[in-house]
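Why does this matter for the project? Reviewers at the last site visit asked to see concrete outputs rather than summary tables. In response, this paragraph embeds two records directly. Each consists of the residue sequence and, immediately after it, the corresponding structure tokens. Nothing has been edited or filtered.
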Amino acid sequence: MSAFEWPIRVYWEDTDAGGVVYYANYLRFLERSRTEWLRSRGIAQRELAATRGVQFMVLGLSIDYKAAARLDDALVVTCDMQPEGRTTAMFDQKIWRESGEGSDPLKKGVRELLVEARVRVVCVDEKSLRPRRIGEYLS
């Protein structure tokens, strides 16, 4: 199965004074991609909490920054989930810059890797925040 892909554009609010994406904002892009990955499976986080009484929390992450994104860049965030156990899962995520929007037609469709991340999440009870089994809805 191929990784889920979610497009995003870099806006002023994502950048520092130099027009470069502020390093912590990449975490927001990764989070939004995981949310959209769930939505693509017909699961809204609010509904998950209301009907199943669970939510997800980040246990840890590792992130490698390869190159900087800038204002107006078209990005693609990928998301690939692998269950780790009964309550945890690992998301392998990447952020790519879509090339070819400029004047060079030879670069159309070429992607440049900007960020690689591994995000470990745990499924928890919404009220107690204690670990709960990840349901079959994520398999």
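We now turn to the second protein, recorded in exactly the same manner.
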Amino acid sequence: MEKAYRNLGYVLMLLIPLTILAFFKTYFGQFPNFEGGMSIDIHLHALVASTWILMLIVQPILIKKRNMHWHRRIGKISYFVFPLLILSFIPQMIRMVDSGNAMFLFFPLSDSLLLTLCYTLAIYYRRNASKHMRYMIGTAIVFLGPTIGRIGPLVLGWSEEVTQNIQYGVIYLILVGLIGLDRTKGKSSKPYLHILGMWVVHQIVFNVVF
């Protein structure tokens, strides 16, 4: 593993407290007696998304510990888990359509698309460790969208507009920082530039839709 990314798995652990904080009022804080008769698909989505986050954390740790056997095995398991993750968005989309809030389909649709693009590129470059790792980091960055999107209004009391702008700002800062890190280390930052381009398009479409 590249020296600059040796502790990537530990950095990604930040997704755990952020996710719990973001979904505490609407999900985790209601355990085990969930209010309002929460449907099974919500629990399944939470389970699959949590599994994916744990896989993102474990994989770079396994590389750091030179345990390539389990890294490859978990990588193959992702071929099963990732489609389930994308499919788990569908019930949420159906509820949005039925409730008359079709415009809010933008969020699960865009998340699904960004996840699929980054994961597909990561698998395509699975034999190129440098590109593979960077596109997998791209899938982790996608989770910042729904996380910040809930922490802003539910925890900090920000408006939806302010929250969305801060979300883009945080994501751009992370990507620009990673691009700068790669350039100082003499590494190719093309994957991050591609991911940055995806988020720019995401912001443009958001402003058109809303």
